[in-house]
TrEMBL record:
<comment type="function">
    <text>Acetylation of prosthetic group (2-(5''-phosphoribosyl)-3'-dephosphocoenzyme-A) of the gamma subunit of citrate lyase.</text>
</comment>
<dbReference type="GO" id="GO:0008771">
    <property type="term" value="F:[citrate (pro-3S)-lyase] ligase activity"/>
</dbReference>
<keyword id="KW-0067">ATP-binding</keyword>
<dbReference type="InterPro" id="IPR005216">
    <property type="entry name" value="Citrate_lyase_ligase"/>
</dbReference>
<protein>
    <recommendedName>
        <fullName>[Citrate [pro-3S]-lyase] ligase</fullName>
        <ecNumber>6.2.1.22</ecNumber>
    </recommendedName>
</protein>
<keyword id="KW-0436">Ligase</keyword>
<dbReference type="InterPro" id="IPR013166">
    <property type="entry name" value="Citrate_lyase_ligase_C"/>
</dbReference>
<dbReference type="Pfam" id="PF08218">
    <property type="entry name" value="Citrate_ly_lig"/>
</dbReference>
<keyword id="KW-0547">Nucleotide-binding</keyword>
<feature type="domain" description="Citrate lyase ligase C-terminal">
    <location>
        <begin position="152"/>
        <end position="339"/>
    </location>
</feature>
<dbReference type="InterPro" id="IPR014729">
    <property type="entry name" value="Rossmann-like_a/b/a_fold"/>
</dbReference>
Length: 358
């Protein structure tokens, strides 16, 4: 228990149904659907009369579920919770993120947060700390290549794992542009780790001298730019759209100008509605920043007199079933060799334990 003259902070036990229900009952009328499995740490702020004034949580670097009861919003309660959680996050990381409604931006700016971008009227993302968007842009400048002719493309890929379809898209962009920056999603939430995905991609594009691989960091399709925990009352389609807009706005405002990117390549989406919505958001937003979008028809292969679209999800499905022959139909030789180097069995075991997103 921690105290100051007006409030005291208590740390609830997130394994206790009573404590979790207490937080849920407080947050529900304020528009939050509290998920204890999606946080690492929570606090409850009380006043000296033992009334719950507010609550807050974080997961990794991201502050979540930060809310104050309406009749306490003119007090220092909000700043007390936000400052305490930020200090806890900064003890382990060099930055903290927060997502809020745009009307709350000034509250966090007043505590030292920097506003990165918004997707009106639902989401604003802010950050705090030493490792920030400016540092990431410095990293981009360090790998930037001179391109006199001016056609510079970007591709953002997860590659879980790297398939013939991914390779086809990169080769097409490399053939049509003087320079291609290939951003690899760095978030480690996929079946294959970031290190393994990076190595597979690197092996699969090594024959393309004008392709530069780039770490996506916190700013390219990461958990930091895809929040949804405080948009309880909005439709899932609208949430997905606004999340995509937030991610794309950050790309257009900060990343593309540093590397002089003027085109972006994506593959057509046949399976994942979220990716399809992301591509639609790209079509809407990129022209506002004078960036062209090239949507390339997904690569297909002929199998048993039938055309099949190449998909990383099909590879994972075949891997989980132990169908090596079908799996290898969708992969370049470089990925096959990488998998055969001991990774295939480890990933198969992982897939048997849990079903992860692609």
């Amino acid at each position: 228990m921690l105290e100051n003259s007006d409030f005291r902070i208590e740390e609830p036990d997130l394994s206790s149904k009573y404590d979790v229900d207490l937080i849920r009952r407080f947050l529900s009328p304020l528009g939050f659907n509290f998920d204890a499995s999606a946080v690492d740490y929570s606090i409850i702020l009380y006043n000296l009369n033992d009334d719950i004034v507010g609550v807050g949580s974080f997961q990794g670097k991201v502050l979540k579920y930060l809310a104050v009861a309406p009749h306490f919003r003119e007090t220092g309660a909000f700043a007390h919770i936000a400052t305490y959680l930020t200090e806890r996050v900064m003890m382990e990381h060099q930055q903290a993120f927060v997502f809020t409604k745009p009307e709350n931006i000034s509250r966090f700016v007043g505590l030292g947060y920097h506003h990165i971008a918004s997707a009106e009227p639902l989401i604003a993302v802010l950050e705090f700390g030493y490792s920030n968007i400016t540092k990431y842009c410095e990293y981009l400048k360090s790998i930037k290549k001179l391109n006199i002719l001016g056609r510079t493309a970007a591709i953002v890929m997860n590659c879980n794992p790297f398939t013939l379809g991914h390779q086809y898209l990169v080769e097409k962009a490399a053939d049509e542009n003087e320079l291609v920056y290939l951003f690899v999603v760095e978030e480690d939430k996929s079946t294959f780790s970031f290190v393994d995905r990076w190595n597979m991609i690197q092996a699969g594009v090594q024959h393309l001298s004008n392709v530069i691989m780039v770490k996506g960091g916190e700013y390219m399709v990461s958990e930091a730019t895809f929040p949804n925990y405080f948009l309880k009352n909005e439709s899932q389609d609208l949430v997905t759209q606004k999340q995509a807009e937030l991610d794309i706005t950050i790309f257009c405002k900060y990343i593309a100008p540093v590397l002089n990117i003027n085109t972006r390549y994506v593959g057509t989406e046949c399976y994942c509605s979220t990716t399809e919505q992301y591509n639609n958001a790209l079509k809407h937003l990129l022209p506002k920043y004078d960036i062209e979008l090239y949507e390339v028809t997904r690569k297909s292969i002929q199998l048993n007199d039938c055309k099949e679209w190449v998909s990383a999800s099909k590879v994972r499905e075949a891997l989980a079933k132990g169908d090596t022959n079908r799996m290898e139909q969708f992969l370049p030789e470089t990925t096959i060799q990488y998998l055969q180097n001991g990774l295939q069995e480890r990933v198969k075991e992982k897939l048997e334990v849990c079903q992860l997103r692609h």
